[in-house]
Amino acid sequence: MKVCVLNFSGNVGKTTVAANLLTPRMGATLFSVESLNQDAEGDGVEVKRLRAERFGQLQRQILEHDRVVVDVGASNAEMFLEMMGEYADSHRDYDYFVVPTVKARKQTADTLNTIQALRRLGVEPERIRVLFNKVGLRDVLSEEFEQLFGVAADGDFILNEDAKLIDNEVFELIKDSEQTLAQVIADDADHREALRHETTPEGKSARIDRLALKRLSTSCAANMDSAYAALFTS
Description:
This protein is of the alpha/beta class and 234 residues long. It has 10 helices and 7 strands.
């Protein structure tokens, strides 16, 4: 499977989706098309970097791999789609285009513009999948993303309410821990038991932090499993 992750808007979590949701579950090679923002290497994922103007080089590498995730940064998204138009039918190299979105007004508008640009290239609705990101536990998606739900009725893209990532502070905490999400999830230490043997306030605090991080990462992984399954459900 080959998936392209993009949105004309920044701050929708494209890199987190590409590196932590898609790449490990697909067993894919991750490509970053970016010139300004930090890519997924900060998440401990090996990244092949290219810029949109080197579309031909990217296309060649995409065709050489069986499983691919392409993370297109907002600063390169328009040029990326322009180049895709120059290479006629190159959009067919991808099985799906995943468009992450958040509930801010600007990002919602940019999400719709991204979908419209994909449709103009000839991408079929069933290959365009919206992923709700940074969703609150009590959010009613049809209300928070009312405009998207209204447009979805026209059939230009696939929208599944279960394809959602709950807002989780684990990614901010991981930055301070100098670990990747995969490393935290793989940590099988019994931190509750270890806490009983800590004798200093500093040691106890550090152990409590590790326990909290493990719990958050576990719930995050379960949420990602559900979102991944829903994302590619027709």
